[in-house]
Amino acid sequence: MFFSSCGSEKAPEPKPVLNFIGGADFVSSDVDLTANTAFQIAITASHVENITSFRIIRSLDGSVDEDVSDTAEYKTKVISEYIYMGTTGPDAGTEIYTFIVADKNGNSTTKAITIRNLGDPGRNLETLTEDNEGNSFRVFNFRGPNEGAFGITVGSPLFQSFPNSEKDIQDSISEADTDWPARWTSRNGTTFKKLSDDAWNTVTNDATIAAAWEFGGTAQTTVSVAEGDVYVLNLAGSDVYSLVRVVDVVSTPSDNLDYVEFEFKRQLK
Question: In this predicted model, what pLDDT tens digit does every residue of 80-90 receive, in sequence order?
Answer without folding.
Answer: 999 999 999 99
